[in-house]
Amino acid sequence: MKNLLLVIAILTLESYAFAQDVVVLVHENNPITSISRALLKNYILKKETLWSSGEKIVAVVPSVQSKGYAIFLREVLAMDKATYDRYLIEMKFRSGLAPAREFDEGFIPNVVGVALGGLGVMNRSAWKPSPEYKVKEVKITE
Amino acid sequence: MFKSIFLFCALLSLESHAQTDQKLEQRLGELEKIVAELSQQKGQVKTMGADTIQFGGYINATATYNSNPKHGTELLADEIEYGFMSRGEIGNDLSYFLHIEFEQEKKLSNKNTAERTFDGAEAQIEAEDIFIEYAYSNNQQIQIGSIITPFGYSNYYNHFDFLRWQNEKPLGIRTSGDNFLIFDEHVTGVNYKGKVDTKGHTFNYFAYSGTNHVNNHAMSTGLRLEWNLPNDTAKFGASSFWGKRADAFSRIRVENANFESYGTDFSWSIGRFEGRSEYYFSKIESVPDYARGFYIEPYLYLDADKKYVLVSRLDYVDDPLGLSKSFGSYDPYKKYEYSVGFSYLPYTYWRNIITMTFHEYEGGTRRDSKGDDRDYVSLELGTVISF
To answer: Domain B57-386 belongs to what topology?
Structure first.
């Protein structure tokens, strides 16, 4: 029983940490209000390329130089850099798809705000909400 | 007194706002000018109709050293190729993918004899992928054109040099002259593919039909099913490929024969230890023996950055058709290949490889038609960049 409680506590804390570290932004006209962790990963890895509305997903992620890159790899993809890079090469050879565009975290809200299908992932500490950005934050579910 | 201070502050605030507006307008004007200039620049690449077009490719160079029992050793830079890729998005659900390979290769003639030797360089252009893709949804797509045949793991997922740890594909997948042993690497036709996700598991399926690229007067049809465990830790696959083989081939002379090929594959990823394995066979009308083969290819990443990789492969083929001719005649054989090697990736997009392969012919096929031992050892070197 104690072990079960411990597992539940760890899972809850892990989920809380994930939600705390990462912000997921979409265009303000996108009807979604939440996104599952698995679906988010599929969208970033381009295993799925369309929103349910049929709009093309324009995914943007922190650049390698950004502070949020390590958090993005760990919390969103659950991959190390070598595995992610290898995945991108395999994706290119299989379908010609280009990886999610990388931007300095300061620009991610701008880019998401100009594309209807915009989807951005960034470090929470770099996110400064402002009505200037035409974006909204969506909740991450397990 | 307070009124004066308040008025003064209000004036300052208004002036500051006015200055900010002026600065923003000035900045906006500068940006508009830059955008206008950029749109008129020479040398700008524009698409004619697509929303976006992307380009990529690779360059691959290989060298091979063969220790021939009869002719001594031979070391040659035997292959150089340039791959060009382009993908265009024409709309949200319509796209194309183009992948053409320009290649100059020196092939081995009499490769299953003690007198194997490299031929002169042969240039060729190969259509690897040229297809239009229509996405019904995220989970269902239809591809029309030339595709890499989704049969087995190696052909579909490791078709290109950069994705393999060896210069050569597994034995059963290599084409011999104008024919294939188990299935054709490419077909031109229609491929319907889709996936189903459930509780972290993904099931992929492919159904396709088209004209073969080699033995190309015939049509083939195929199916593939895949089961991916959560986080891609393992993948199980089953494939089939059937049709008619139009050309007369082999000393058995089969013409317009029906054939059925089946395969099963498994790949895994456990920490730094990864690998793949396949078994496949083909039953050809009026040929008493099955063509068959299998391989297992385990590899180990030696460091966390995955720059150093220890690779190996145990490979087997039984070719009762004798598709690779020896001294002008069809020459059935059974063969094992044992490879060990080392791969180094100084950058993610640059892979270098050195492997040593022991080629051992089995049982009654150990000697060629002149009575010489066919076994030999080869050393393969390769470098490939992807961009």
So the answer is: Porin (2.40.160)
